[in-house]
Design goal:
mainly alpha, 2 domains, XRE family transcriptional regulator, HTH_60, two-stranded antiparallel sheet, 151 residues
Length: 151
Amino acid sequence: MTNQKEVRYIEISGENINVYKKDLQSLTSKFALNLKQLSKILNMPLKRINDIVHQEKIDLTNHEKENIKHKSAMLHEGLSGIESKERAQVILDTLTQEFDLSLMNISKLLDISEKELLNFKENKPIERKVELNICVNILMLHFTLNQNPPD
């Protein structure tokens, strides 16, 4: 793996590729990830990750740039910058908007009462066991609804 000190500053189309190399290197060093793991996390071929890290000249698509920046930022700041319950509340809001689901729909999908879900959404006290159940099942529902079917 390339050491951060070995990274060269390269201009491509007026943009410095070093920013993306540093993002990848930061992920590998901070989270003890190898390039194969990065490949899976970024949903990019391992050869492409190797090219970005090791080649002096590489053209990145806008999608690749956005993917690296977004996932790098989320892994570095997003996961630790918000509490788990707040994250589940955000995902609950996203589910209602993205899939046009009501709290009643979601409560039935999660097999909990609509009142408990509303209390969770409004940050009112609920039993810890119920809160954990809501959080885990909201994540699983989000994952299920956003998963692409196999080819």
